[in-house]
Amino acid sequence: MPHGHNGRLDTDDGGAIRQAALAGAGIAHLMQFAVQDDLDTGRLVRILPEVAMPTMPVHIVHAYGRQLPVRARLFVEFLAGRMAALTRSGGSSVAKTAALRRWPCGSL
Fold first, then answer.
1. In angstroms, rounded to a whole number, what is the distance separating the alpha carbons of residues 94 and 97?
2. Residue 95 class from Cβ within 10 Å (0-12 exposed, 13-18 middle, 19+ buried)?
């Protein structure tokens, strides 16, 4: 089936890569959580499921010292919960090594 595309797309913009894949431009290498809705609805199809993406740690760095404001603490807890849910569901490899660390201001 002729596709009319000729060349290579190289970008570090995940949204642009997703849009290109949705437009039929070729294979995309994206984190599962970013395209889960597209996979669920069939807009995108997983290929090579046995090939795992490399893992990467996630760090949250703030400048609040030891007294983290409630809004920031709630945000950190929200992110930790989302990462844990992705790990339990077999989701993105980024969640499998999520590391949430708090450094006091000045210790970086």
1. 6
2. buried
